Q: What sequence folds into this?
């Protein structure tokens, strides 16, 4: 069975998503019911919601909405990775509010859509350090050339558990492996960083990719981090840009066809269960 650590839900009637205007293929509602119907068919048993970069004023409303969905009978939702703004003075108070909510398992601030120096600011870094000892993770989503920025954060906050999303967002469509390959090897040397094998189909050519197209990127990520430091995520609905949830799950199983049962279990569920203390 699978624990999906990266589900996005979109409800434009309830929340504001400024970035959707620039991505017409995703500029519609993507509901939990739509996701769950397909996810159950492919073996997903539990799921974490990943923040969807909503308008800053809607951050806490997004978490509240998803938590409400988790209370529905039979819901697979086990927690949320909430949005945050470590660059703002109000982060400390926000963190204290979220620490009392056991549904919140960690945080993410999308970094590839903001200036590179945002994560270098003293306030941002001080606020990231506040996560140390809380048991709350911080997801990193950066482009390959920005991985050194993520490395700097990992170095500055060794007591914080980071999760690098989407295999470091490699340029699969363009066949780009450098400097992504070298940067992935370097960030993997930080024991407080795990990698998420998620959504890479969205970075491949939607009309021509195969399992072998994805293999060098997924295998290098797993080889760099090791089987104890990788988790799996769908990145739904972004993965629909490259084939969809069922296609990505099928490709994942194909990529793991030569692996042992223990290795598959760690990637697909055991590591996530341990990291986020999921039942």
A:
């Amino acid at each position: 069975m699978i624990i999906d650590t990266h589900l996005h839900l979109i409800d434009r009637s309830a929340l504001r998503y400024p970035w959707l205007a620039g991505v017409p293929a995703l500029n519609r509602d993507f509901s939990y019911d739509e996701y769950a119907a397909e996810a159950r068919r492919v073996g997903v048993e539990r799921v974490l919601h990943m923040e969807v970069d909503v308008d800053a004023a809607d951050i806490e409303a997004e978490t509240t909405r998803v938590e409400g969905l988790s209370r529905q009978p039979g819901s697979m939702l086990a927690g949320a990775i909430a949005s945050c703004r470590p660059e703002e003075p109000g982060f400390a108070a926000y963190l204290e509010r979220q620490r009392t909510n056991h549904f919140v398992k960690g945080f993410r601030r999308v970094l590839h859509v903001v200036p590179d120096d945002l994560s270098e600011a003293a306030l941002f870094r001080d606020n990231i350090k506040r996560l140390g000892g809380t048991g709350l993770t911080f997801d990193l989503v950066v482009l390959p050339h920005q991985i050194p920025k993520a490395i700097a954060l990992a170095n500055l906050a060794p007591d914080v558990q980071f999760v690098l999303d989407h295999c470091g967002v490699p340029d699969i469509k363009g066949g780009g492996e450098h400097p992504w390959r070298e940067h992935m090897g370097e960030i993997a040397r930080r024991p407080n960083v795990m990698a998420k094998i998620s959504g890479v189909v969205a970075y491949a050519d939607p009309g021509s990719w195969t399992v072998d197209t994805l293999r060098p990127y997924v295998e290098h990520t797993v080889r760099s981090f090791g089987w104890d430091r990788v988790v799996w995520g769908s990145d739904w609905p972004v993965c629909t840009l490259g084939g969809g949830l069922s296609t990505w799950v099928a490709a994942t199983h194909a990529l793991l066809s030569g692996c042992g049962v223990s290795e598959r279990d760690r990637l697909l569920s055991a590591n996530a269960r341990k990291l986020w203390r999921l039942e």
